[in-house]
């Protein structure tokens, strides 16, 4: 019996390809790879190094800068944010700081200073990160605690929109991609945690942390 790594519900066998077995959760709709097929950290780092190139930097900048503009239009004053799971280059960081904002960064491989977890943030951005989470509930709980009430969470990940064609989906062939989210997954998280789902389509998910005291929480 395999438990869902996001909501702990009993998962169901979904599909087997040439390398991995995948399971689906009937409660939160997460699809995930068998934990026994997860790569070891050294193998993850080797694969990660090949992917962390200039093209990814450009995509990351194009993800973060419009987000800052949108949040600044909603909230006055300087913003403090967290770039979770990736590292932006210094030139791009300088542009953000010149605009009066601050962006801390966390990457488990190359920038893993735990001190950044000692404060809360106006926004957190996760660019091409969630699919790598081997323990998504742990990461989700961390993100929830790091955001201020009213804070914004912006996620870039390829949403799973067609279960029937999952076996042919190129996104699942990367061995470091272990968690696959449907729109219903984020709807579940919003209904059972401190977030309001604002938008979820294609590769962008935007959520906002609420300040409601009567909201349901995920049971760990």
UniProtKB/TrEMBL annotation:
Lineage: superkingdom: Bacteria
Assigned keywords, A-Z: Methyltransferase, Transferase
Entries under Gene3D superfamilies matching the protein: Vaccinia Virus protein VP39
Name recorded for this polypeptide: Class I SAM-dependent methyltransferase
MF GO annotations: methyltransferase activity
Pfam families: Methyltransf_23
Any one of the GO BP annotations: methylation
InterPro entries membership: SAM-dependent_MTases_sf (IPR029063)
Leader peptide range in chain numbering: none
């Amino acid at each position: 019996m395999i438990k869902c790594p996001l909501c702990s519900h009993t998962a169901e066998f979904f599909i087997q390809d040439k390398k991995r077995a995948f399971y689906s959760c009937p409660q939160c709709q997460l699809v995930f790879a068998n934990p026994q097929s997860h790569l070891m950290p050294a193998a993850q780092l080797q694969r990660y190094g090949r992917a962390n190139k200039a093209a990814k930097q450009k995509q990351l900048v194009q993800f973060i800068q419009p987000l800052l503009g949108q949040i600044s239009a909603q909230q006055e004053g300087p913003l403090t944010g967290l770039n979770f799971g990736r590292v932006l280059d210094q030139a791009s960081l300088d542009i953000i700081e010149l605009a009066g904002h601050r962006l801390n960064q966390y990457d488990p491989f190359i920038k893993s200073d735990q001190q950044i977890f000692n404060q809360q943030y106006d926004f957190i951005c996760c660019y091409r990160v969630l699919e790598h989470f081997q323990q998504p509930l742990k990461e989700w709980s961390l993100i929830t605690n790091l955001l201020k009430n009213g804070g914004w969470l912006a996620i870039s990940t390829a949403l799973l929109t067609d279960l029937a064609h999952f076996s042919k989906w190129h996104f699942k062939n990367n061995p470091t991609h272990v968690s696959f989210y449907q729109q219903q997954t984020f709807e579940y998280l919003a209904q059972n945690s401190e977030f309001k789902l604002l938008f979820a389509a294609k590769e962008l998910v935007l959520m906002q942390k609420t300040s409601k005291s009567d909201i349901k929480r995920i049971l760990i």
